[in-house]
Design goal:
Length: about 70
């Protein structure tokens, strides 16, 4: 899977997934993993990278909202 497609998936996931500011990293990762498991077009070898990137995007988004 090319990087542009991965970035698009990460961007969409980080925009659409709803998580609590009190959620732990593990809880957020589990939610992301459950979501991308339904997307059959994502190769298994790319899933972990997408999960970690999405988690970091979500954490940054939450931090911005907390400190703005």
């Amino acid at each position: 899977m090319n990087n542009t497609l991965k970035e698009h998936i990460v961007s969409q996931l980080s925009k659409t997934l709803v998580v609590s500011i009190y959620s732990t990293d593990s809880e957020i990762k589990e939610t992301i993993q459950k979501t991308i498991n339904y997307i059959k077009a994502i190769p298994e070898e790319d899933k972990e990278e997408i999960i970690n990137l999405t988690l970091s995007y979500i954490k940054r988004k939450v931090e911005k909202k907390l400190y703005c």
